[in-house]
What we know:
Layout: E1 5-7, E2 25-31, H1 46-58, E3 61-67, H2 71-82, H3 85-89, E4 94-103, E5 106-108, E6 113-114, H4 116-120, E7 136-143, E8 167-169, E9 175-179, H5 196-208, E10 216-217, H6 218-236, E11 249-252, E12 259-260
Parallel strand pairs: 2-3, 2-4, 4-7, 7-9
Antiparallel strand pairs: 1-8, 4-5, 5-6, 9-11, 10-12
Amino acid sequence: TDAGAEGVVSAKLNDNYYPRRYKKMQCIIFNIRKFYHLNEEEIENTEDVQRLKLTLESIGFICTYYENKEAWEVYDILQILAKSNDDLAQTDGFLCWIITHGDEHTLHASDRALELDSILKPFAGDKCPGLFGKPKLFFVQAMNKTSKSICVADAYGGPASEPDIPCRIPAMADFYLAFSSAPGFFESGDEEDLSHFVKMVTKVLKEHVPQDPVQVDLSSLMARIVHETREYFVGAKGRSGLLCYQLPCAMSTLTRHVTFSKLR
Length: 264
């Protein structure tokens, strides 16, 4: 049972959009390329991830990059950030990228499996006042060279309840989780495609986020990412629709639209 969380949101809060008062968001990128507990080769994706970082910075994200962290380090970094209320209070939200090896329902740090609950819960409304009523976005690129299943999935949870000021909201409200493929189908089957989600997100942000003050919302961008991913596998790579490929999947408890624009 979600006991809810109490806090204060802006009195000028738009019913449809999260406020962009500061035009900046905190971002942490975990790029896990080495796996000491698995029989997996080191993943070569550094250039793709650095391009993603630069693109995110161009639309207002303050990015911190970490590579090959063990599970306890991942949890520790996130918990420290979640408790930095003064810093988070001066931002419009938070984004976490986890780029790693995945198999079925499991994501991995360099030393062992990661627990998704332990990643999300520090940012719940009752534990992280600095992000109360603000969007918390988690993007996961889970890579695996083994191809087993076709996964074509996309879901978006639209606007929900409208908070008062001050307000009480579900503790796990304002979360958005995007996966490179549906959980349980973390396979690629082609070493060339291991960073396809990172590549597609970078491409869409570069090409479809307008210059401030014009804005575009996250749901529109995600629909474009799904489309570009399908084109990447079926079109650009010249593949038959019968062959294995994955489309991104999103799950949301956002209560408003998240919008982005390129900084001037």
